[in-house]
Write a structure and sequence with these properties.
The protein is of the alpha/beta class. The chain is built from 15 helices and 8 strands. Strand 7 and strand 8 form a beta hairpin. The protein binds adenosine-5'-diphosphate and magnesium ion. The site of adenosine-5'-diphosphate has 20 residues, from helix 2 and helix 11. Keywords: ATP-binding, Nucleotide-binding.
Length: 330
């Protein structure tokens, strides 16, 4: 029998979501106080689950914007989500979405009134017109938002970090409150696995739990896959191998989306475990077989930090996700 806390899909309800009670409550309170939380954090720590749970509890609308890059796509996604759920006349709007996406999006938001809209992975919508829509919504409607996204693309504009953009000025990120979600600590990882073990009567020893907590460095998604496989009857070794297989596929895909210098930085950090700026640059140049300008190198490092793929502590850089080690296997 599968175990609900280890269900590999993003969670929809608190019952199957381990802890993070304070975060859920805080995010909910912010929304009710008319702030718009922007949930930031590494991949696989529970951002989507948080948005889904909060939106569910507040009877709102969830939109997966990971593949959405234009207002037209956003407007039709929103339209599709709400057409059966809310008693508002949207017939006229449908025709408008193609021709006047900004106008129709604004219209939908105004008509929706006091509704929470969760937009997951907002960073790919980079058109400044979105800011203009949000700004109008903020000033003229009761609609509330919760976003997730990395601090690249729109999210940056949302919090007013972007320079010189015509539309960000009128908005200045006024209602946005950033909320950072971190991987579990070692202790939290152990408690999470122990909780699932109890709840779903899974046969796991204390040593196995500690080993997994050590291996996955608090990345909740990997802990969840591991727990799920254990609940299906895999032994410790087999479950870890299977998580490795799944992780390789996912991480190779994420890696493929990085720029040339970002790729080499991630590989170098896989080899070095941690490094200061100078040494990391040298190793990257070695791997790449050519010089990298200071500016380009620094820019790529900063992008990786914003994407929460690496972090900097005491002057040294580290990978956040231990499974990025799959990149240096061959
Ligand atoms: N606190 C938690 N309790 C139970 N499962 C969790 C928790 N946080 C994350 N997960 C699980 O981890 C995986 C990644 O979660 P998700 O919400 O998709 O994260 P993100 O959006 O940050 O990538 C999913 O399988 C989800 O069910
Ligand atoms: Mg997500």
């Amino acid at each position: 029998m599968a175990c609900d806390v280890f269900d590999p899909y993003p969670k929809n309800s608190r019952e199957s979501f381990y802890d993070r009670e304070d975060t859920l409550n805080e995010v909910k309170k912010l929304i009710q106080g008319k702030f718009w939380p922007l949930i930031i954090g590494p991949k696989r720590v529970g951002k989507t689950s948080i948005v889904k749970i909060v939106v569910n509890e507040l009877n709102g609308v969830y939109i997966d914007a990971s593949g959405i890059t234009s207002l037209k796509q956003l407007a039709s996604s929103l339209y599709n989500e709400i057409k059966f759920r809310f008693q508002i006349d949207l017939k006229v709007l449908k025709v408008d979405i193609d021709k006047k996406p900004t106008f129709s999006l604004q219209n939908i938001l105004t008509k929706l009134g006091d509704v929470v809209i969760g937009i997951d992975e907002v960073q790919n919508i980079t058109t400044p017109w979105f800011i203009s829509v949000l700004s109008t919504a903020y000033n003229t409607s009761d609609v509330k938002f919760i976003f997730t996204g990395s601090m690249i693309g729109l999210s940056k504009v949302l919090v007013g970090e972007s320079k010189g953009k015509k539309f960000s000025n009128q908005f200045k990120g006024r209602p946005i409150v950033e909320k950072e979600i971190s991987p579990f600590s070692y202790e939290e990882s152990v408690s999470f696995l122990a909780y699932g073990k109890e709840r779903c009567s899974i046969n796991m020893t204390e040593e196995e739990i500690k080993d997994s907590a050590e291996t996955y460095q608090g990345i909740v998604g990997w802990l969840t896959y591991y727990g799920n496989l254990r609940s299906l009857g895999y032994d410790h070794k087999k479950a870890k191998e299977e998580v490795d297989n799944i992780a390789s596929r996912i991480i190779l895909d994420e890696y493929a989306r990085l720029g040339e210098i970002e790729k080499v930085i991630v590989k170098a950090l896989g080899l070095l475990k941690s490094s200061n700026w100078n040494n990391l640059k040298k190793v990257c140049e070695g791997l790449l077989g050519k010089k990298i300008s200071d500016w380009n190198f620094d820019h790529s490092l900063k992008q990786l930090i914003k994407a929460r793929i690496i972090y900097k502590k005491d002057g040294k850089y580290f990978l956040i996700d231990p499974m990025y080690k799959v990149l240096i296997r061959d």
